[in-house]
Each structure stands twice: as C-alpha cells, then as structure tokens.
Amino acid sequence: PFKNLKDGFLSVTPPEEGIDAAGFNINEGKSTVSITVVGASGDLAKKKIFPALFALYYEGCLPEHFTIFGYARSKMTDAELRNMVSRTLTCRIDKRENCDEKMEQFLKRCFYLSGQYDSQENFADLDRKLKEHEAGRVSNRLFYLSVPPNIFIDAVRCASLSASSANGWTRVIVEKPFGRDSDSSAALTRALKQYLDEDQIFRIDHYLGKELVENLSVLRFSNLIFEPLWSRQYIRNVQLIFSEDFGTEGRGGYFDNYGIIRDIMQNHLLQILALFAMETPVSLDAEDIRNEKVKVLRSMRPLQLEDVAIAQYKSHTRGGVTYPAYKDDKAVPKDSLTPTFAAAAFFIDNARWDGVPFLMKAGKALHNRRTEIRVQFRHVPGNLYKRNIGTDLDLATNELVIRVQPDEAIYLKINNKVPGLGMRLDRSNLNLLYSARYSKEIPDAYERLLLDAIEGERRLFIRSDELDAAWSLFTPVLKELEEKKIVPEYYPYGSRGPVGAHYLAARYKVRWG
Ligand code: NDP
Ligand code: BG6
Fold it and tell me: Which residue ranges does the record assign to the Glucose-6-phosphate dehydrogenase C-terminal domain (predicted)?
C-alpha cells in the first residue's frame, strides 16, 4: 500500500495509519504541502501554474494545509505577487459561484521570496520561511522549476541542499526542454541525480495531462472493438498532427535554439505515439505503463534524413494585414535555418506494427490550431460496394480521429448508404463530441499533472530511460540537419504548410487527413 515509501517517507519513521496509497498523509492535522514555484515572475507561472493551483484549490483538491511560495530574482512583495497572480486567475473557475471569496482565500496562501537561483543562502531563507508556515507539521515540499533550462541544475542543487524537507517528501517538477540531444539530456539527468533520486524527479510533458491523451488507453483497452484492430493487419497508417495558427512571437530566442522537432515532436507527439502503439501494460501502475512505453520506443527505427521534411514560415499579407516571417523576430538570426514546421515518417519494428508508417506533422503559423491522431484503416478486402463508392478507394476506408484539441472529439468515419432508392454510399461520422456529451469543463492539463505530483502519481511523467529512448530516435537526424545546414522550405504564415510534407507522405502512399 505504500507506493512511495522511497519518496521522502524513507527518512521518517515508518508510515502510520492515515498514510494513503500514494504515500500521502491524509491525517491533515499532521502534514502540510509547500509548493514553491521557482521562476514565479515568468510566463508559464502566470499563464498556467498559478491558475492550475487555484483551480485545484477551488475544486477542493489541495490538502487542508498548503502554502504556495513564488521564488525568483525579481523584487516583489507578497502583495505584489498576489496582485500579479490575481490578474491571471481569469480561468474557467471565474464564472462560477463564490469565485471571489475562494480567490481571496487562495491568495492569502501565496507568498513571495526574492532570491538568486544559485544561492544556497537564499534557498536557506526560503527554508526558514517555509518552516514558519509548516508550523512543525510533517512537511512535504514540491518545487516547480519554471525557469529556463540553463538554471535547472543550480536551482535543484540549492533547493535540495538548503530547502528540502527534513521529515516529509521533496519532489521537483522539471519543465522541458530536457536537453537538446542524447548527450545533453544524459548530462542533465546525471546532474539532477547528484541531488535527487529518480523518484523525486517529475519531468513534465503537459500533453500527457490532456484529457484525450489520457483517454487513449481507455479507448484501446476498455473497448472490445478497437484493440483487435490495433495492428498492421487492419491499420494502414497513423498520423499525429500538431498545428498552431500563431508563430513564435515573443519566444523566438528560445525557439531558435530548439526548433519544432525538439519543441513538439520529440516530446508531445512522440509521447502520444508511445501511448498509441504500446502493448497492453501488466497493470495501470506507473512503472508498468512506462515499461511498455520504453519498449515501444526502443522498437522504433531512428529517424532518417530522407524521412524528414522541414520548413520555416515567411511573411504573408492577407486582407491588408501583414503577418511576420519567423526571421522578423529580433531574437532570431537573419540567416536562421531553424524549422518551424516538420513532417516525419517513423516505423516500429515489432510484430504488431511492422511496415505501418507513423507520420508526424508539426508546425507553427499555419492556417488552424489543432492536435489530432488520425488512424487510417486498410481497404475492405473484396468490397462488394466498390462500384458504389466512387473512384477513390483510399477515401472510402475507415478513419478514426481523436481530436485532442480544440473541440475535443473522437469520431469514426464509416461508409454509409445515402438514404433513397439508389445505392450510393458516402462517408459519415460516428461522432463523440465532448462538448455535446459532457457538460463539465475539461480541466487544464497542468491541473491534473500538479495534482498527480502532489499525490506522488508518476504515470504521466517521463522516466529517464524513456527520455533516453526518445532522444536516440531524433539525435542523429538533428545532428545531420545541422551539420549539413539543410535549408528549410518556406511556407507563408497562415498557410497549410509546405508541399514537402505531401511528398514525404506520398512516398508511403499516405494522404494527410
Ligand atoms: P521565462 O523566460 O518567462 O522565465 C521564467 C523566469 O526565469 C523569469 O521570469 C525570470 O525571473 C527567470 N529568468 C529568465 N531568464 C533568465 C536568465 N537568463 N537567467 C536567470 N533567470 C532567468 O520562462 P517561461 O515562464 O516561459 O518558461 C519556464 C520554463 O517552462 C522553461 O523551461 C520553458 O522552456 C518551459 N515551458 C514554457 C512554456 C510557456 O508556455 N511559457 C510551455 C512549455 C514549457 P527573474 O528574472 O525574476 O528571476
Ligand atoms: C509547448 C511548446 O511545449 O507547447 C510551445 O513549447 C507550444 O511551442 C505549446 O506552443 C503548445 O501547448 P498547447 O497546450 O497550447 O497545445
């Protein structure tokens, strides 16, 4: 029952009654959780972390005793932090009853300390402040590293040496990017492990907290009709599509060092692929699921240069409005070759998926915003209705679409008789549109992930061997692209993307959905 015994509770006397399966002390009078947002003055903290913490508080998901500390170099008082945070709490919760009152109560639990990320003394000050609030209870401490990656190690060193809990657990959420390639990622892991056990490290990939990504396993493993079809026998190809209708404005400095392959494919899309393609795990335990994800990642062929198409957006004028080129961003070098769009074809060399192309496509500044998984099924052998379908048989195969965002939905394209006296078929959708089926709003991914980190649930976080396997698929091709200075194709801001993505798909007889 004590799943997380290793995690902090090791250092205290054996758990007593009142410790739940996640190792959490439900005897609230005795324990407290302190959440420190390192980099609290930043964009992610304002946009996502504080609103998610408030939503959890509003829903009654935070423990009775909790404190939130913002920590960053910027000078701010508690009141200024509260003021800053309150402006970002215009989340979905806002519309509901008692929101103002709840917000006030929440803000009273938020404090701020200004300090350097590499100063043990400053973190010792934080430790003292945390202790004041913990008031002698068992203290569990969560640090959320919401800072640029070059600061991760300093912050972890100082937090672990000067501010880790003396009698409860200490956990650290680390934001991406986890390195730029296999070597830098391994170096980051080694450095983190100087100060933390793997069990204390929660590497976040917020796509794993998205409702429809979590639902993938439910869809596959709790519906009889899907799993038998989930293989090369019935599936022609799988497409993982990410598109955004805005560019890298404001994040050009970060983006130019990474590019779309590292920003979206190596993590968000690959994680979805792993969940989609893994074998049935032994159980729903975090380690069983992560073992299966690692297995499938290790069965994949590293990406080859000929299986990649890259592109970058250029300026475009539409309706009198001029949209900027990627390179118009002041933080981006004028000769940058960094891709803002990429398409790639992957193969999984195992019995289930041999020969099935898994195509990924990710791009910024495209014509729409969507993230989808599209599963195209094979043709019906000896189809009796071939003649009634029309000339393009490919268009008449079944397709399952899992729309992760926006307008979350799962729909299946089937062939259907058009009502009437004739015998003409068309393709219609069996459609599960979430907004029509479920009235409750879908929580933000960060809410689920923060709650899981507090409860010690690691299922949705990335283990280090998973990360190694993910990087080994991309590192050789990223090096080759950079060493050979491959010039990206250019596509206009707001377009459907470059033609290269279609050529790549056509090599494998795939048409993008
Ligand atoms: P910011 O650039 O806003 O940085 C956060 C804080 O870190 C800043 O407010 C600043 O605080 C401090 N900081 C920034 N640059 C430096 C520097 N060069 N040296 C020392 N301190 C610095 O980052 P975000 O909030 O956008 O992102 C935080 C983390 O989350 C990053 O790792 C990012 O890659 C990741 N991420 C961000 C997303 C987003 O949407 N923003 C999405 C997904 C991941 P101060 O000066 O007060 O110390
Ligand atoms: C982040 C990327 O991880 O995900 C951003 O760094 C991207 O470039 C973002 O915009 C997309 O997240 P979401 O949840 O808005 O789809």
Answer: 218-512
Q: What is the pLDDT of residues 336-367, one digit of tens each?
A: 999 999 999 999 999 999 999 999 999 999 99
Rounded to two decimals, what is the model's pTM? 0.92
Q: What is the pLDDT of residues 89-101, one digit of tens each?
A: 765 555 667 788 8
Q: What is the pLDDT of residue 7?
A: 38
491 Cα–ligand 2 center, Å: 20
Average pLDDT score over residue span 132-153: 94
3-class DSSP assignment, residue 61: coil
Spacing, Cα 208 to ligand 2 middle (Å): 12
Instruction: For 122-177, give the secondary structure using H, E and C.
Output: HHHHHHHHHHHHHCCCEEEEEEEECCCHHHHHHHHHHHHHHHCCCCCCEEEEECCC
pLDDT tens string 7-61: 333 333 334 445 544 444 444 458 999 999 999 999 999 999 999 999 999 989 9
Tell me which residue has its CA closest to atom 5 in ligand 2: 263
Rounded-to-integer distance, Cα 372 and Cα 366, Å? 15
**Spatial separation of the C-alpha atoms in residues 196 and 142, rounded to whole Å:** 13
Q: Is the CB of 457 inside a 6 Å radius of any atom of ligand 1?
A: no
Indicate which atom in ligand 1 lies nearest the CA of residue 145. 29
Q: 317-330, pLDDT tens digit by residue?
A: 999 999 999 999 99
Give the closest residue to 134 by CA, choosing from 32, 29, 57. Answer: 32
Tell me how far apart the alpha carbons of residues 278 and 418 are, in angstroms, rounded to a whole number: 38
- Residue among 174, 166, 227, 203 at smallest CA distance from 375: 227
Closest CA to 158 of 177, 145, 149, 168: 145
User: Could you say which of 65, 206, 268, 316 is catalytic?
Assistant: 268
User: ∠ CA 498-500-504 to the nearest 5 degrees?
Assistant: 140
447 lines ligand 1 (CB under 6 A): no
pLDDT at 477: 98
Atom of ligand 2 nearest to the CA of 267: 3
Give the Å distance between the CA of 251 and the centre of ligand 2: 11
CB atoms within 10 A of CB 393: 12
Judge if the beta carbon of residue 72 lies within 6 A of ligand 1.
yes
Burial class from Cβ neighbours inside 10 Å (0-12, 13-18, 19+) for residue 88 reads middle
**Bridge partners (DSSP) listed for residue 310:** 342
Asked if 268 is an active-site residue, the reply is yes
State the amino acid at position 319 in one-letter form: G
* Rounded Cα–Cα distance for residues 144 and 35 (Å): 7
User: Is 88 touching ligand 1 by the criterion CB < 6 Å?
Assistant: no
The ligand whose atoms approach the alpha carbon of 272 most closely is 2
User: From the CA of 147, how far away is ligand 1's center (Å)?
Assistant: 4
